[in-house]
Structure formats: structure tokens, C-alpha cells
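Chapter summary example: a protein plus magnesium ion.
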Amino acid sequence: MEKVIEVRNLHKSFGSLEVLKDISFNVEKGEVLCIIGPSGSGKSTLLRCLNRLEEIQAGDIEVFSTNVTKVKNINKFREKIGMVFQLFNLFPNYTVAQNIMLAPVQLGLMNKKQADAKALALLQKVGLEEKKDVYPETLSGGQKQRIAIARALAMNPQIMLFDEPTSALDPEMVGEVLKVMRSLADSGMTMVVVTHEMNFAREVANRVIFMADGYIVEEDSPKKLFTNPSNKRTQAFLSSVL
Ligand code: ADP
Ligand code: MG
């Protein structure tokens, strides 16, 4: 197995508040790791540390065997890691296709023609090819999030990070976004997914981490963690959400 993310003894504080306490875990190529846990437990901060959106106080994070804190060209490094947030942050004054292709074209990775073809292929992947030329304001929340996923994929990332991608959606739109994520997982993408969708974690994750209070409390296969968690805090959390 090829390790693509390796986190060792990570500590992260905001001022005097320590929010990540001695976090260690690995992610193998092609794996889907789901991170669950109560609000405020440090899940978003942990994701943000992986592509150095946050500086860390102690520990090591290696992504593709590169020490994240020592990366020279951070933008080049981040091209390999797609990120999708709870709020989609599409650019309102650009069409859907322009939103998807803006970064690769601006960075000179593709010409206009290649970008058009790529945008169309990605729109087909997320089932929205008919929305190519509309503006984001005309889309539903679920459609916006599928476009945000397509936009992240436009850079040909090797890892995708998701931070509660369905939490801001109306319930009837959650399924369409999870479906896109599921097919991405099936295609072999390496994914780290912070989610409250326990069914998704149970069915799609290779491993699940339960975080509370800045710690990894439990890490296991979804089968074990959801049916027979060994830690009391995991049990209490699961019984409150399931
Ligand atoms: P989660 O995603 O699990 O809800 P977060 O990683 O967002 O948790 O937050 C973990 C803790 O860190 C919380 O106590 C939160 O208030 C705090 N925190 C997050 N971001 C910042 C920040 N930029 N400055 C200060 N405190 C922060
Ligand atoms: Mg969060």
C-alpha cells in the first residue's frame, strides 16, 4: 500500500486553546477516510492543516512524502489536493463552465479549448452538463455543490478533502451530492471526508475516525466502529446521531 497522507503527533493551537492534541493517522492511496465527531472537536482544523491552510505547532504532516510545513511552492502543492467546503463559494459573476475552468486556465495548465472540453467532461461526471452556461444563482444548493466538486476536480487533484459538503443543504439535495462523492470514491480517488452522514461513512469509508475534544478517540473499520464501538464517547456520540 502506498501512503499518501501521514500525520504524526500533530498539535495545533489557536493562542492558548489547543484544538488538535497529538493526532496521528495515515491515509493510503485510493482510500476513503471519514472523520466524524461533535461540533468543535477539531475536524475542520485538521483538514485545513493537511494543505497548510493552518500552521501547526508540533508534529509532522507528510503528503506524497513531502513535509507539508517545509513545502516551498505551496500553490503547486495545493494543486494536488482538491477541497470542497460546506459553503460552495462559487463565483457569482462567472458561468458554471467558467467557474470550473477558471483556475486551470489562469494557471496556464490548459488552453481555452482544452478547458471547454474538460469542463464538459466534468459536468457530465456530476450530471449537470445542461447547466454549462448558466450562472450559479440559478442553481439549487445541491447543484452548486456538485459544481464545486467539479471545480475542485478540474485541477486533476490526487486527493480530495471534503468538509461537511452536505451540511448546508436541504435534506432532499443531500443524496445527489453523496452520489457524486460515492462515484468519485468508486473511481479510486483518495478522499478524506468530514461528515455527519453516518450512512455514507458506513457504506463508503474504508476507515472511520471519531474525534472529540481535539483527540482521535477511536479509529476503526466502519463495520466495527458503527456496530461495536469500543470507546464510551464514541458510543454516546453514535447513539445521539443514529
Ligand atoms: P469542528 O470542525 O470539529 O466543528 P473546528 O476545527 O472548526 O471543529 O474547531 C475546533 C476548535 O477550534 C473550536 O473550539 C473552534 O472554536 C476553534 N477554532 C477554529 N478555528 C479557529 C480560529 N481561526 N481561531 C480561533 N479558534 C478557532
Ligand atoms: Mg467543522
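Key point: The first helix runs from residue 43 to 50.
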